[in-house]
Amino acid sequence: MNFAALPTAKRAPSDAAHGTGASRERFTAFLADEASEQAVRQCVLEMALPNSSVHRGNIARVVTHLQSVRSPTALMVDVSGSELPVTEIHKLAEVCEPGVSVVVVGDRNDVGLYRNLVRAGVADYIVKPLTRSLLQNVLTSQLEGNAAVTAGGFAHQKLGTVVAVVGTRGGVGATTIAANLAWYLANNETRRVALVDLDIYYGDVALTLNLKVAGGLREVLENPTRIDELFLERAMVLSGKRLYVLAAEERLDVPVRIDPEALPTLLEPLRKQYHYVILDVPRQPGALIEQIMEAAGIRVIVADQTAHSIRDAVRLRRFFDAPQANQRNVIVLNRSGELGKTDISQKVMSETLGLAIDVTIPYHPKSIIAAANAGNAVVASKGPVTTAIQELASELVGRREVKRRRLFG
Ligand SMILES: Nc1ncnc2c1ncn2[C@@H]1O[C@H](COP(=O)(O)OP(=O)(O)OP(=O)(O)O)[C@@H](O)[C@H]1O
Ligand SMILES: [Mg+2]
Questions:
Q1: How close is the Cα of 208 to the center of ligand 2, in Å?
Q2: Distance 301 CA to ligand 2 centre (A)
Q3: Do domains 23-150 and 161-397 have the same CATH topology?
Q4: Where are the chain's structural domains?
Q5: In CATH, 23-150 is 3.40.50.2300
Q6: In testing the pocket of ligand 1, which one of 368, 369, 387, 389 has its CB within 8 Å of the most ligand atoms?
């Protein structure tokens, strides 16, 4: 595709200040003492590693650093002197991109610590002093992608979570929820989020977030062999610092032939770079919706309290029945209270669906209209819809489970 034709406004920036794409480093190291810093610097020089940088600083500094730039492919951090190294690594994982290979340097020769770090998903733990051969082995292994060997044979790369948002009927609010959830996770939970509007004809994710579509999604769906990191970066539009939107506004008279490989080929690189890949799912029947529901780790099903919605939710059930062990359904009731007394009660809804309602979002046109007028996300301001989306975000982030989950791996 012709990238020169893409609108420049709000396109993902490529300047180093934002640390996106081309400026993403291959290797970044932060070492707490001069001798270690020099040893790594020397090793990087000898190995002639391009696109790398070595800095002085402890892990807290790395956390601050990664809040403003993109994570490198491989990262070295130093936990020497830290009383709670594992806690620090968990904090790092909150800001670090999912697919990053993390090597921890420390001064404690402690098998228990090694195990805990590996369990948290780091690729390797090495103890000072940092010798040349030790560093060369570790770096070669991390950068050549066979880090699993140093990490004791487990695949350490964590991938982002795919969240599919599907409405049970038209206008139920699926797009509003997908867009605002994505905005909330990116801005209030400092996660890197990719929001993909798979409704290529009528999708209005970009409109909801007041963005200009960059184009490229059609190519992605028709020619998945063209998908790579650079291609995606140019096709995605940036909203704020961490929310990237992939959307299209295709002409209705030109049918798009979706390649069956498109979805898996698209999700693979996205899951490596984003903590969440949120899909706004069109309701058209076909192979795509089947693939989406299968690929999604979290399926957010949006319904309202109408008979139509319940009937269609029951029809959709075969897509979200019997989730796999690594899948979860989250049932959202939107527009609650819209019809007053004629609303079907939540109790009846739950019973008919055979599913509990996880999150209820009130019908509140005032906040929706105010956000639209301001050209902003609803969740950028406080209000009843924001509170409910916040609850939904907590469901996804899994507040109570966060300490137990593996972070990088
Ligand atoms: N909780 C709510 N309170 C008031 N209005 C809402 C609420 N949720 C969504 N809306 C409004 O309802 C309309 C439809 O919402 P939206 O486009 O998100 O639905 P959808 O399910 O994605 O629809 P489509 O089937 O067209 O894709 C929009 O104008 C939106 O602003
Ligand atoms: Mg929609």
A1: 10
A2: 13
A3: yes
A4: 23-150, 161-397
A5: yes
A6: 368
Q: Is 162 left (phi over 0), alpha (psi -120 to 50) or beta?
A: beta
* SS3 call for 405: coil
Please tell me if the CB atom of residue 181 comes closer than 6 angstroms to any atom of ligand 1. Answer: no
Per residue in 348-391, pLDDT (tens digit) is 888 888 888 999 999 999 999 999 988 899 999 999 999 999 99
Query: What global pTM score does this model have?
Result: 0.76
- For the chain, what's the residue count? 409
- E-assigned strands of 26-142? 27-31, 52-56, 74-78, 101-106, 124-127
Architecture of domain 161-397: 3-Layer(aba) Sandwich (3.40)
99 lines ligand 1 (CB under 6 A): no
Could you give the C-alpha distances from 196 to 162, 266, 278, 329, in angstroms and in order? 10, 10, 6, 19
Closest CA to 250 of 226, 269, 278, 222: 222
Q: Is the pLDDT reported for residue 399 higher than 60? A: no
Is the CB of residue 163 less than 8 Å from the CB of residue 300? yes
As a whole number of angstroms, the distance between CA 105 and CA 30 comes to 9
Most confident option among 23-27, 80-84, 247-251:
80-84
Q: How far is the CA of 33 from the centre of ligand 1 (A)?
A: 55
* Cα Rg of the chain, angstroms: 23
pLDDT digits (tens, 9 = 90+) for 283-295: 877 888 889 999 9
Residue 170 CB less than 6 A away from ligand 1: yes
Ligand 1 pocket test, pick from 172, 175, 176 with the greatest ligand atom count within 8 Å of Cβ, gives 176
Measured in degrees and rounded to the nearest 5, phi and psi for residue 328 equal -145, 140
Which ligand has the nearest atom to the CA of 208? 1
Which residue out of 175, 284, 389 has the highest number of ligand 1 atoms within 8 Å of its CB and is therefore the one to mutate? 175
Long-range contacts of 364-371 (CB under 8 A, 24+ apart): 368/176
Query: How many angstroms separate the alpha carbon of residue 206 from the centre of ligand 2?
Result: 11
